[in-house]
Amino acid sequence: MLNGYAGTILEVDLTRGAVRKEPLPEKLAREWIGGRGFVAKTLWDRVPAGADPLGPDNIVVVAAGPLTGAPSLGAGRVHFGAKSPATGGYGDANMGGHFGPELKQAGYDMIVVTGRSDEPKYLFIDDDRVELRDASHLWGLGTMKAEETLKKELGEEFQVATIGPAGEKLVNYACVSHDFGRQAGRTGIGAVLGSKKLKAFAVRGTKTIPLADPAAVWAKGQEMYRAVFDNPGMAQWTPEGTAGVVNWANEVGAFPTRNFSSSYFTEHEEINGHALIEKLKPISKGCQGCPTPCGKYSTAKSRLGEAPVEGPEYETVALLGGNLGLDHIEEVAYLNHVIDDLGLDTISTGAVVGFAMECYQKGLLSKEEVGRELAFGDAEAALWLIRKIAAREGIGDLLAHGVKKAGEEFGPIAQAIAPHVKGLELSGYEFRNAPAMMLAYATCDIGAHHNRAWAITYDVQVGQDKVEGKAQKVIELQHVRPIFDHLGVCRLQWVEIGFDYNHYSALLKPVVGRDYTWDDLMAVSEKVWNLNRCFNVREIPGFGRSWDYPPARTWQDPVPDGPAKGKFIPRERVETLLDDYYRLRGWSADGLPTRRKLEALGLGEVAAALADRLPG
Amino acid sequence: MKIGLREDRCSGCLVCQTACSLSLFKELNPKKSAIVIEPRFPTPGNYAVHACDQCGECATACPVGCIEKGDDGVYRIDAESCTGCLVCVEACPQKVMRVHSSREVPIKCTLCGDCIRYCPRSAIYDVDGDIAEKRWY
User: Fold this and answer.
1) How far off is chain A from B81, nearest CA to CA, in Å?
2) Residue of B nearest to A158 (CA)
């Protein structure tokens, strides 16, 4: 028995309609920890090189970590991964709620979904009983209705993760939804599940998760909770959740505004955390084990409609609020509901709609091509376009591919303002006054995502103009932050209230029965970072430095207004940042890991597999 | 110590259930706890919290008299004499006498207080005030 783990992997072959159970290999647990580590290793090993992301050869991996479900702050996390249809490279997404703990209690650390079904299915897991069941009655349903239907059929105690209509229609930024408002949002995992005709997972688990030393685990868990109860950061972060960041992002000139053309939204106080609480009057809805619930659940009422919604969280406020020029929090919340229910990622969807609006404004996209007028600040236009994208009707069919593909269609002016890196849309930080944040987006393994390195706080701390030392900090953060996704816990207590991360390695010891220092965990994280870079080298033709550039607007257009007015990052500074980053990582000037570096990280087999592509 | 509930503060984090199973059984298994959190989503969009108030209905219902009130006011099941008939489970007005497939004997709150101590939002609190309340935001 492997303490801290459920001990079993579920192999789900949709082509044959078969489910098989395999023991979790001890070597996998020891060397890759769990969660993101399991996802990265499994995708590298099992996705055939060159597989079509939306074809039967791609796989979807769902993996919990050793601290998922443990008596730890934020122990509700579970990791999803697949070869991404958005980037053609490594894709993953992390989700909170209760799905991960339930999966482990049912007896499984990981689900590996392969093949493709002819008919819609959902995966039913009730402890040892695992079945692929007919989902024809769920196909076409929104995520809210699909989850509600399964809970009514099976029982409230089942935890459900489902795709929506956008996943079924293979929109490149379709997500997986759970608990009426938590998502594995990014990189289009929902589309990969849609291509396989797997609508949902429903799981109930009643088993005890084995621990090496239960008394010591609970003693450590108690210590962790007691340490946060009196933390002054609780008062700062809990009331408004992540939407509390809106004011700060504007003050430092980093708030995505009108397709990232500006970094300051004049009306931001209409959509900030305070407005959310005052106008939506939400309850707090937390993930498992969370003392600082950032989920804010309410009914969004506006002229657009009325519906229940969890959120909007910061990223959604940024991408649907400032980025679309919307200054009513109720409208942002309603759009949040619609996007969640369609099973789309709010970040990419907001970026795509904002991009279309600016292209329309610049005359790169006509009324005839769109089918109506588009303008920043027009919530009805946004709602209309979102529905077109999910249904893949008219212009929505092209926009369903994301801003990279759409930019290629609309021409070079559009390409320069298409907010993405590697084909994944930018999340909620405009970075022309934040070079470390730019580098974090540029080098993130899944494309332009903030959560591997929320380096903007470092920019603000040491100077937003400086580039020196930024690459080192980005690398450090790219190892620290993703390790939470290996362990199966939330990073936000560390980020928000300064909770000492050594608590987690200390808790890991009585959970799994082995000593892990924080440095041990960092070594795993660096290994995974390099492996994912190699996945991109293997899967993306010509992958290297040229794939790490941010949109040309970064150096072409100074920020027009706000605290960052006049700022931009000259091309040579972008090059300097990339040079520094590659050198410090032990990669070539083209951004390729060297075989020597990989061997030093214990990735000799990976180096050998890519011997003709990687420098020595 | 007396359990009080403020449902509007519950965020569904289940720390109470995790604490309960670790306290009662030294096991990590929220399904083996004597507290029920009932999520009510998508509407009305809140949580109902059910916990034992030591009302004694279980003892009244027990056909073999194996549930007795201690000097501390807490009703406890004598596992030796319990026949596993589950009449008490049916009788519990709060529906917090819980059954688990690994046990014949139902799970009953012993008023250990760990759910109160570790509820981050004092949605479960001590009416008598012996356990300090957390600040709530």
Assistant:
1) 26
2) B39
Residue whose C-alpha is closest to residue A479's, from A433, A426, A414, A532: A532
pLDDT of residue B95: 95
Annotated domain spans of chain B: 1-51+109-137, 54-94+101-106
Q: Is the pLDDT of residue B136 over 80?
A: no
Calpha distance A427→A354 (Å, rounded): 12
Question: Hey, what domains does chain A have and what are their CATH numbers?
Answer: 8-204 (3.60.9.10), 243-421 (1.10.569.10), 429-498+517-616 (1.10.599.10)
**Chain A residues in contact with B120 (beta carbon < 8 A):** 225, 228-229, 290-292
* pLDDT score recorded for residue A225: 95
Q: CB contact, 8 Å: A425 with chain B?
A: no
Size of interface A-B (CB pairs under 8 A): 103
Tell me whether residues A206 and B13 touch, CB distance under 8 A. no
Helices (H), A264-394: 273-280, 314-316, 329-342, 346-361, 367-370, 379-391
Name every residue whose Cβ is closer than 8 Å to that of residue A169 and which is 6 or more positions away in sequence: A194, A390, A391, A392, A400
- Cβ contacts (< 8 Å) between A149 and chain B: which residues? none
| Intervals of chain A under pLDDT 70 | none
* Chain B residues within an 8 Å CB radius of A144: 42
Comparing alpha-carbon positions, the chain A residue that sits nearest to B8 is A283
pLDDT band at B137; cut points 50, 70, 90:
confident
Q: What pLDDT was estimated at residue A17?
A: 98
Give the minimum alpha-carbon distance from A228 to chain B in angstroms, rounded to a whole number: 9
In this structure, which topology does domain B54-94+101-106 adopt according to CATH?
A: Alpha-Beta Plaits (3.30.70)
User: Do A207 and B29 lie within an 8 Å CB cutoff?
Assistant: yes
State the nearest Cα–Cα gap between A308 and chain B, in angstroms.
7
Number of other CB atoms surrounding residue B73 within 10 Å = 11
Residue given tokens 């759970």 in the structure block: A178
Rounded CA separation B82/B61 (Å): 13
